[in-house]
Design a protein that fits this description.
By secondary structure, the protein is an all-alpha fold. The protein has three helices and no strands. The longest helix has 63 residues. It is rod-shaped. It starts with a helix and ends in a 5-residue tail after the last helix.
């Protein structure tokens, strides 16, 4: 019996609550049906989204370009240092070879001049 009373009370409470909600929904619909503030806001947001580039490609491409330029400068400096060191070694070897060749030519000239003097031929 007690259970039956509780069940009846719950059903009555639920039915009155749903009636009140239905009344509120009707009142809201009547009072605010002409309000388009949110609709206007949503339309402006959509217009903004249409004007934007997809995925921010402009920023991505700009960042990639800047990174490429900076990276190329770094790598060219490294390569330049390596090539300068290599060329310096090659130039040093070339000057050493030149110096040695000139020295041997001077020695040969001195030996030839000495041989000609022994033969009695005057040079210069």
């Amino acid at each position: 019996m007690r259970m039956l009373r509780l069940l009846t009370l719950a059903v009555l409470t639920a039915s009155t609550a749903s009636q009140q909600y239905a009344d509120y929904d009707q009142d809201y619909g009547n009072d605010y049906s002409q309000d388009s503030l949110y609709h206007d806001y949503a339309m402006k947001q959509q217009e903004k989204e249409v004007g934007k580039a997809a995925f921010g490609w402009d920023k991505l491409l700009l960042g990639t370009g800047i990174g490429w330029v900076i990276g190329s400068k770094v790598h060219t400096r490294r390569k330049e240092k390596k090539l300068n060191a290599k060329h310096k070694e090659e130039q040093k070897a070339l000057y050493t070879q030149y110096y040695n060749d000139v020295y041997t030519l001077q020695q040969q000239n001195a030996e030839l001049a000495q041989a000609l003097e022994q033969l009695g031929v005057r040079i210069r």
